[in-house]
Amino acid sequence: MKVAIFDTHRFEKEFFEKANINFQEALTFFEPRLTEQTAKLAAGFDVVCSFANDRLNSKTLSILNSYSIRLIALRSAGFNHVDLEAAAQLGMKVVRVPEYSPYAVAEHATALILSLNRKIHHAYNRVREGNFSLDSLVGFDLHGKTVGIIGTGKIGSVMARIMSGFGCQILAFDIRPKIELTEKYNVKYTSLEDIYHQSDIISLHVPLTPDTKHLIDEKAIAQMKRGVMVINTGRGALVDARALIVALKGKTIGSAGLDVYEEEEGVFFQDLSDQVLQDDVLARLMTFPNVLITSHQAFLTREALTGIATTTLKNIREFDEGRHLTNEVSIRGKGPAAHN
Ligand code: NAI
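A: This is the predicted complex of the input protein with NAI.
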């Protein structure tokens, strides 16, 4: 099949090419993100392969439909950027990669916790400048601290295991609790309020849905322990970035590790180093010494990239052969279990 891959980055191309040895699809890599403006690049292709920050609204989908594109193969777990109703009305199928490496994301969340706590980002710069002072680098033992995990699906479960390895007490909230986490890692399921009141670290692992949008807002923050560390490797809009700034200034939130940001589309994944940053909220967040931002890189391991490429090509093969689409996203199937 002729596959147009949008928003291609150097880091992923080799993984697609390697996985494709077993599939032999005709892959064409395009750098632009898929939007209404770039959709015309899909003319003459059978399948469009899209990434997390593409814009698959009804207009983009209508343009793709006019080129007879029948399959949208998302190379992400998340599909909150796709108008599924419009796709269904146009008779387009949407498939995704529901799982690649939960370890990649949970380990990155852990890296954010450790770096923020032990101030590795400051220490690295200091030592390079010949400043060997330890002043203001004091952290805390993770051992014995309380970690609140919101969302204990694939990633949250790995996070619980890792944090339990550090000797942390784990509180969790999920609409579908997992008994095995309680049995294996002593995870205590409780209410969000309890998590806010008791946690020293809060890590977010729920998908972005209307229910979870701005889960961490002014009201939630007001219930948190003073100095709490908030880690978001889920989706940017789980956190109200403006409320976060107020809380950081007032020191209610002691530190924040953000791999995702509400308005990351068009910014994250891009080299904008020679441009003037237009987003004042992001610019403000970047000024805090106790905020560590990575640009949606939690998934970025060799294992995850291999998994993403292989599953995407398998999804396309199933469609080509008219088989059941294992990883189809339909409006009916749309639910809390799905997203990236
Ligand atoms: P999952 O589907 O395995 O787990 C999500 C969990 O959230 C489920 O247990 C579900 O019951 C729970 N949940 C859903 N709605 C909820 C609600 N309203 N309240 C409480 N719990 C709720 O998903 P997975 O693979 O663990 O991914 C979790 C998050 O990680 C997602 O937000 C996803 O977008 C993000 N992600 C981020 C990546 C990155 O590179 N930063 C890469 C991959 C995923």
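Residues 335-340 have pLDDT under 50 and may be disordered. Residues 77-78, 102, 105, 151-156, 173-176, 205-207, 209, 211-212, 233-235, 259-260, 296, 298-299, 336-337, 339-340 surround NAI (CB under 6 Å).
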